[in-house]
Amino acid sequence: MIDLRSDTVTRPSAGMLERMMKASVGDMIFGEDPEVNELERMAAEMFGMEGALFCPSGTMTNQIAIKAHTRPGDEVICSRMAHIYLFEGGGVAFNSGASVALIDTVNGTFTAEDVKQHINNPDDPHRAFTRLVEVENTVNRGAGACWDFKDLKRIRELCDSRHLGLHLDGARLFNAMTADGRKPEEYGALFDSVSICLSKGLGAPVGSVLIGNREIIRQGVRIRKLFGGAMRQAGYIAAAGIYALKNNILRLADDHRNAAFLAEALNKCSLTEKVNYGGTNIVIFTLKPGNTASEFLEKIKARGILALKTGERSIRMVTHLDVSDGQIREACDILASL
Ligand SMILES: *Cc1c(COP(=O)(O)O)cnc(C)c1O
Questions:
Q1: What pTM was estimated for this model as a whole?
Q2: Residue 63: CB within 6 Å of ligand 1?
Q3: Would you say residue 266 lies in a domain?
Q4: In this structure, are 317 and 216 located in the same domain?
Q5: Fewest C-beta in 10 Å: which of 4, 7, 70, 234?
Q6: Strand 165-170 to 129-136 pairing
Q7: Which domain holds residue 27?
Q8: Residue 6 maps to a domain
Q9: Does ligand 1 come within 6 angstroms of the Cβ of 7?
Q10: What is the distance between the alpha carbons of residues 196 and 174, in angstroms, rounded to a whole number?
Q11: Where a domain ends, among 193, 226, 247?
Q12: Based on the domain organization, do 181 and 318 belong to the same domain?
């Protein structure tokens, strides 16, 4: 099967497994797991930030950050497409007692002007207290759209002048940096907290890292424990993360090239109405009226391709390190011929 449902379906490579087997481990909660300590040190240094926390999932790193930034009743500004709003089980409300102010966007990116229009007057007791701005890069529901770095800089300036925190959901930040050529420290300099996923395009089986300034990390240690994310001999999975950061970043360009091929093939497919491709590893497309995503998925499954339904007539395909160039060529031939 050519599995294009998500970049989370990858299995650890032989090299990664070998690295995991060799991990030296200890009790992480006692601060004694060498691999976790090394991964956290590496991530913080990479982004030029003060600290980092290894966590089981990207949902947890985002939710810890939101809780560290806010108090109950506060408001978080984010896109209506944001993963923290759509796909984290209502966690902003459940975990932090915070509400959201949603920005309507085309692809999940927005401007400082959009943010400004959603900041409540802090002196008006009727309004929730705006505390945090959250951006996602790349944007999952935005077909992997990558932000214009200039917009991020302007949002940082606005957050500084309005005393707002700024969090980055960087589940696919390395895909963004592959596309925009920016360096981790450039992102680290703009945000108070950054969440990166090791289990997406980087190919690790488990794990995310929350990277941030001292205060976020200090509070984050407590919140990670509260959320049940403080693990013990987590070095076995942290070792996979270390391997991923060392070996699997440069190859993300291959995934982007393959996604561009898929977008091209889907544009030739007679059943597609509109193909959205944000320039990284995700393609989202809609089918012409009269077709349904479920039928389309059945049809391609019979030809050996798996994809994900994202709406009645919309489907997502994601490229990753477990689909080969040959499989992509095969998938493109099939899709273009439908
Ligand atoms: C996958 C993802 C996350 C975190 O997901 P987990 O499955 O909890 O690791 C967060 N944000 C975005 C944009 C994602 O795609």
A1: 0.97
A2: no
A3: yes
A4: no
A5: 70
A6: parallel
A7: 14-247
A8: no
A9: no
A10: 8
A11: 247
A12: no
**Residue 8 maps to a domain:** no
Q: CA–CA separation, 136 vs 62, rounded Å?
A: 10
Residues 187 and 325 in one domain: no
Of the three residues 194, 217, 247, the one that is the final residue of a domain is 247
Question: With contact defined as beta carbons under 8 Å apart, do 78 and 134 qualify?
Answer: yes
Compute, in angstroms, the gap from residue 122 CA to the centroid of ligand 1. 31
- As for how many domains the chain has, the answer is 2
Question: pLDDT tens, position by position, for the chain (338 residues)?
Answer: 999 999 999 999 999 999 999 999 999 999 999 999 999 999 999 999 999 999 999 999 999 999 999 999 999 999 999 999 999 999 999 999 999 999 999 999 999 999 999 999 999 999 999 999 999 999 999 999 999 999 999 999 999 999 999 999 999 999 999 999 999 999 999 999 999 999 999 999 999 999 999 999 999 999 999 999 999 999 999 999 999 999 999 999 999 999 999 999 999 999 999 999 999 999 999 999 999 999 999 999 999 999 999 999 999 999 999 999 999 999 999 999 99
The answer on 305 and 242 residing in a single domain is: no
**166 DSSP β-pair partners:** 133
- Is the shortest distance between the CB of 169 and ligand 1 below 6 Å? yes
* Residue 170, token pair as written in the block: 């960087």
| Residues recorded for the chain | 338
